[in-house]
Amino acid sequence: MLFENNDYDFDILNLAGFNFNRPQHSYYEYEKQNNGLVSTEEGFLKGNMWKNEYAPYKNMPPVRLKPTCEREALLFKIMEIDFAVNDLNLYLDLHPEDMEMYECFKKYTEECIELKDQYARMYGPLTLDETQGNTYDWMKNPWPWDKTGGSMYV
């Protein structure tokens, strides 16, 4: 084997403070107990829903988003919750047995659906499958990223 008969007299994982000899805890349970999840807002801004997993680029803090109107605030909230759903989905792909995270995933999924329905009722659909009422509203302007007088991102 690759690591048999080496000159190293230490175990990397034990140096990290994890004890594999405890059968009641998996590595991910250990991480959950010591890290856990951050708020959806913090997770969205940092790009990671797990505490102590954020490594800032050149020690630059994440920038808080400042919505300029209610519509933009609702859109930011949708993006925030949608990010949490996707990040927990990635975790659950590897750990489908984690019922605590699955319950959290279901809660965020339901909240995201409700927020998208609210946005569609108030401002129009975000996706093709959210069209409401008797008319085809998908092509009506403004788009969620448009502002009067041009695009705010271009």
By DSSP, the count of extended strands is 2
In the residues, how many domains can be counted? 1
Instruction: Report the uncertain regions.
Output: 9-25
**Ends: how far apart?**
55 Å
Helical residues, percent: 40-55%
Q: Rg, please?
A: 22 Å
Largest beta-sheet characterization? 2 strands, antiparallel
Order of helices and strands: HHHHHEE
Q: What is the overall shape?
A: flat
Question: Number of DSSP helices?
Answer: 5
Percent range for β-strand residues:
under 5%
Average pLDDT over all residues: 76
Strand order, sheet with most strands: 1-2
Multimeric organization: single chain
Structural class: mainly alpha
Describe this structure in words.
Helix 3 (40-46) crosses helix 4 (70-94) and helix 4 (70-94) packs antiparallel against helix 5. The chain contains five helices and two strands. The chain has one domain (12-18, 25-128, 138-145). Strand 1 (146-147) and strand 2 form a beta hairpin. It has 154 residues and is mainly α. Residues 9-25 have low confidence and may be disordered. The chain has a two-stranded antiparallel sheet with strand order 1-2. The chain has helices spanning 12-15, 27-34, 40-46, 70-94, 99-123, and strands at 146-147, 150-151.
Which key phrases capture this entry?
154 residues, mainly alpha, two-stranded antiparallel ribbon, 5 helices, 2 strands, flat
Question: What is the topological layout?
Answer:
Elements: H1 12-15, H2 27-34, H3 40-46, H4 70-94, H5 99-123, E1 146-147, E2 150-151
Helix pairs in contact: 3-4, 4-5
